[in-house]
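Exam review. A common question shows you a sequence with its structure tokens and asks you to describe the fold in words. Practice with the pair below. Do the first one on your own.
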Amino acid sequence: MKTPLVLLGLAAAGSLAFLATPASAQVPQLVNYQGRVAVGTTNFNGSGSFKFALVDAAGTTTYWSNDGTSTAGSQPTAAVALPVTNGLYSVLLGDNALTNMTMIPPSVFNNADVRLRVWFNDGTTGSQLLTPDQRIAAVGYAMIANGVPTGAITSAMIASGAVTSAALAANAVQSANIASGAVGSTQLASGAVGSAQLGTGAAAANLNASGQTGVASGGLVLSATENQALVNAGYIRIGTTTTADAWQQRTNGPTPGARFLHTAVWTGSEMIVWGGTSGSNLNDGGRYNPAGNSWTAVTTTGAPAARYSHTAVWTGSEMIVWGGQGASYLNDGGRYNPAANSWTPVTTTGAPLPRSDHKAVWTGSEMIVWGGQGFSYLNSGGRYNPAGNTWTAVTPTGAPAARAFHTAVWTGSEMIVWGGNNGGVPFNDGGRYNPSGNSWTAVTTTGAPAVRSSHTAVWTGSEMIVWGGVGFAFLNDGGRYNPAGNTWTAITTTGAPAGRYNAAGVWTGSEMIVWGGTNNSSDFNDGGRYNPAGNSWTLVTTTGAPAARRLETAVWTGSEMIVWGGNNGGGTVLNDGGRYNPAGNTWTALPTTAAPAGRTDHTAVWTGSEMIVWGGSGASNFNDGGRYNPAGNSWTAVTTTGAPAARYSHTAVWTGSEMIVWGGTNNVGEFNDGGRYNPAGNAWTAMTTTGAPAGRQQHTAVWPGSEMNVWSGYRGGALNDGGRYNPAGNSWTAIAVTGAPSARYEHTAVWTGSEMIVWGGYGFSYLNDGGRYNPAGNTWTAVTPTGAPAARFEHTAVWTGNEMIVWGGLNGSKLNDGGRYNPASNIWTAVTPTGAPTARNHHTAVWTGSEMIVWGGLNGSYSNDTSSYTPGKVFFLYQRP
């Protein structure tokens, strides 16, 4: 079960906020606050939604809230968006430059006890109150200070010459304001204080301060670096602490993977999709919000076992999942609470026989399940009461014939069952079940849609809408049944989704949303919204994330990851893509207008303002490409004049002014030539082959700053040689093989600033070793295998500035683990598997400066989900005496 959000270590940040004296016009009315939030034991990372209120000790009186709407300690209406890094955040309370933040009136601190109350929303769990409320101490009360408490300022706090006579108004300091001995002669410039301002003994020894400034005595401060300023201020360094590394599923969010035989319910604001199958059985899902046209993931923690052909109903606060088929027919289930993003088991005591392909409805107090198939087709069922977690049998007397793959809806007083199949010709009849009388009434077949099974059905409040399914073909038509008149009306097919069966459907109050399903040729992750008032259809978004794929390219712009091209596994190469912004957790589609033709195994580099795509394979091998400018959201063609021959599985690096492409294959042989492309002139310059390494593909290349280092790859077998190309001299220098790692391809290489680190890949077997190449000395140093991740290839690697992070890949089975390698210590640290994406290869990964973003790849099916990994970070701890 996902644990509640908790607040850890919230403390005043430590500086004076504002003054309610005549100086308040010059001092901003702000309180600087810092805090930490975690989900369970995992520090939160990303953009969080916060709400703040200043309340009394009992929490029943609100003095101020961020949007001014809180009363009696209640939650404000609007939230303030703040970035959170490793659980840490800071905010200037009262800063009206922030959206939904109002100024704090000084009168708040006329109250003797003022406490900060905080609510937090991580985008999944919903807004939750963080406890306990935090009492505001000296910083807040400085806002109404009319004078300085006796002894609060000592000579140690005032630099020599800090206060001169010019800074003091006449009679600004009277003897009553100065304790005996508070100011000595060494603190006073000639004439700074006259006799009228001094009382007897005023120039005696200095008094001690109260010990309370921004951080209380004994308080701790975390610094990302060794901080001499804190030492100079009297703080004592007491050690270091390392934050835990963490994964976060990103985007609001990825569409659930394509599937069928799943379920969907409507909550009043969201459609929840869960379970199903698509090559393997699933126990995950997503919540679709049509208002925002966005998705949020459903947790798998505590979820029922993976299954398909189950049922699900919405109770008003929970989704109840029951039955279905996994390793066998099932009669268990679970209750999912989206507010807490958590699961509770459903009892099996007294439950109906195990079954799948049955149907269920919610009556307002009970879930009724009926029909389906187990070891035979069934016309029995049961009523489940979640309040008591108990079951009651449904009579079979007068029920429709035993069947599965039918639909059922609840009208407010009856359950209507329709269609389905019992192994022969599908049905277009049904029955209405009344639980109060435990009795059945037949549904007319006059005007009913054609026979079908595995269709969808929803209740509108007055009609049952039936759509899709399979009869003698895959169907995208249907009908509306009115039980009051026992009559049918046809549904238009204009604009409807493609014919399919096993799609999920919900009623929103004005529309029927259908999503997913299959037609045996492909599984769908699209759908449509049907409006019965207009008898019309509207398409459902697939979120903004590019379609699932592998062998795409990805570049990091400094603020966004751009992915493009690749293969979707259906034999289709793609020429679309998307820009992912981790700060906003959003995708923006790339235009296909003027984009290069669809391709895979191409290269892409980032120039600082453009992504340049070149080469690759699709309908043919390519020697063309395009330059994508995100500022203009437009493409410009890369000239083919003077370009290298068409190829794929080559490499490309950016020098600061040119893109250098080299190597690769065209299915006939491997190349050892290449070219330098200058986007400023849209022109190519040939590279010499004199002294170049032998032709190859699936090699690596890095740009250290003046040369391109090429190493290893495939040419009839794995290689362990390479070369350094100098564009200034158009010349090659061999890379030493003494001490080099063994031959390999499909490995990774990163540049550290002084070394190229090569790791993993495939030679005569999968590898988990590597080497560090120093071009200055033309020497190799081995990378320790101790503690290294398991051997693999087709993984990714990024350089963080002090570590190489490798993740995912393949070694006979797909992997979702990895490791962080520190070359300074030659030590590996495992990447946490908690919250990691599903195992995959052929994915992409980029480093943003603070996190690694993983996208796409192949994980049994093609993936278009997004996750970010934040490595643990060392902080220096300082304590105030």
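Now try the second one, then compare your answer with the model answer below.
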Amino acid sequence: MNRLFRGFLFLIVTLGTFLLLGLYWTFYRPLPDYEDDLAMDGLHEQVDVHWDSFGVPHIYARNRDDLYRTLGYLHAQERIWQMTLSQLVAQGRFAEFFGADLIPLDRYHRTLGFHELAQKMHEAASPDVTRILESYAAGVNEWIDDHPKDLPVEFALTGLKPIRWSPVNAHAMARLMAWEMNVSWWSEMALGYLSQNLPASIVQDLIPEWNPQDPVMMSGVPDAVLSGAADTGVEMLRQELKRRDLLELSGAGVGSNAWVVSADKSATGAPILAGDPHMALSIPGNWYEVHLSLNGRNLSGATLAGAPVVVLGQNDHYAWSLTNMMADDTDFFLERLHPEDSSRVLADTTSIEPLYEDVIRKHHVLRVKGEDDHLFTSRWTRHGPIINDIYPEQALTDDHLLSMKWTGHEVSQELEVFLDLNWGTSMETFREALSGFRSPGQNIAYADRDGNIAIFSAAGLPIRNGNPVLYRPGWDPGADWQGWIPFDELPSIVNPEKGYAANANQKLHDETYPWYIGTFWEPPSRTERIEQWLERDSTHTVESMQTLQFDTFSPFAQEVIEQIVPVLRSGLQEHPEFDRILPYLENWDYHFRPESTAATLLDVFLLQLGDALFGEWMEPEIYAIFVRTQNLPSRTLKRFLDPDQFLFGQTRFGDSQARERLIRESMSDALDWLREEVGPEPIDWRWEQVHRLTLYPPLFGDLVRRGDAPRLLEMIVTNLMTRGPFPVHGHAMSVNKAQYQWSRPFETDLGPAIRRVVDLSNIGRSYAVLPTGQSGNPFSEFYGDQTDLWLQGNYRHMVQDSTFFREVSYTTNRFFPSEE
């Protein structure tokens, strides 16, 4: 018995030892040593990297090549899995590692041509930029070569190996970010589908901003072709949404806040800049913060792992931040095939004889895990990729195809622009660098130590004939883009008399502006609140800017409550249950704080009203498309609730009391939903009870949510790689944006991907916070270590001058040139 017991104990100890060793090798060994001295191939001189208490590296180098080589090494050390995923997207290689189910996703990425475009950008880049990118890539690859067995756990779970880096990969990162921020086409595709499935009067009521004279600018296009184009566009939209869900980019849109105040409105005697770009929230997040010091010159801010540029930050002279311009940079062209030759499309009908052009064919081989290779051919016209090839069964009728023209398919050098911005010295050099920026269209908030403040628009935007349209005829030269809006004629605000400039994705221009920029601007709620805040005070501080970034007040909510409360009160006889909830609504301060019951009442009411109003005459599939582009239903509901803008009248709902009846019925339905889903009493209906944020890792999070992950993988993802759920302050219509999809209510998936504030009176110190942390390794102390700060509206400071060594607790890596 004792022998048996000892044998059993030996077995347990042995298994436990192997388990612990496995845990160590899989999870802990990949963690970096932040106090080690390292030899690096290709270094010319010693580089010192000082790590602050949040894992932000301060890289001190004596020459540019060493600086960027070291940055590449550190990006790989902390985010190599994230970088590898980005290139699976750019190269269209998901099926190679994850199986045939992802062939459609690879077809989508290959058809859009990210990697091929990046190759062209690399070939057109200047030698100076290419040298920087090569130094950076060498650093990435050295980390990969030095750590073949120290890879993050995701590689063990998937069997992938890191993708070796090159300048092409960095250019691909730039274009992938441009595509992620290209949102106008979402609304256009949804509108195209609605226009083919709803009466024209309804579409006009839904979206009064959109009023094209003719859906194709040319008569003679059969209705069946337009219907086929709408179906093709929606298939493209579905694939894009599937891609975003897989990569945890599923935020229902993008946005941002950025503002600057002048010295006259600042308590510090210098401008203050604040910015918080809104992006999909996942773990790790989009941004990786750094401080670069090159022979005494300083640069700090947010980078994207995979490219050696600071995208938003500050140097020794100025600071900047970005917001999405919401520009219309994409058009869809109907293409007509030659009646006897499918390799040619009609290019011009204005000449005596119709002119045809060859279709460019690109052959692709997709490797598929466990199966034979998948072969397919994508086609391009002069306008761009033919998107029917994403779903070949979605062919249009009457020999028509649909192509996509996107400004991001033009070869441009955004990485060079950012490198110039990073090390510029004045507003003149900053603006000159921006003139080369093409995609994605951005508004750039700027402030400098000389007292200048500004917002510049930077984009490559086409000049179009006529009104914006859903589909343009590819055979009409007049429908083609007629050139580009000159950079000097893009909107800008420089040193305004009112002492501040702000942008929250609204248009910067007025009705006298001569060029078409876009149509689908964000609702004005955030802009109104920011301007109210900046107007009311002339002594702004860093603290007041931080308070505004975390502000949860919603002008949108105030307007809606003022419209519905009288209707609810007048309906008490029919709905006596309103008596319990009216005090919450009438005494609400319109802040979306965790403890607010009124916040929950309002949003559940709006969801129920949307179902009642749109579901009355939309099929479920149409409704799902409509609400996924969230700014469309939000604006429509707001107009419906305004009695002076009642949209549908007697012709739609049968009597003049339709508005009041729908408001009361929708609130009654909201109360039923809350009692069933949350609890019996209004005190249970606090915002924190329903409005939550869970930070999922890309790829694995989607598998877990869909229930497709094996049990062991689900346990690892849920317990080790995911953070949350957390109650979260804010709303889609507050400055502190916390947005969810209507199709997945209250699961916050979009918000500030970083918050930053810079006081130009002390540019060596800035304030920032990430929703996650610096590391992509779930066992790192810097994985999710900033989440609590972010949730509570707190910040950490970044020091980029010599006071760092006196004020900050740090550890140091020293990188030496290799002796080989």
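Model answer, second protein: The longest helix spans residues 64-91. The mean pLDDT is 90. Full marks require stating both points clearly.
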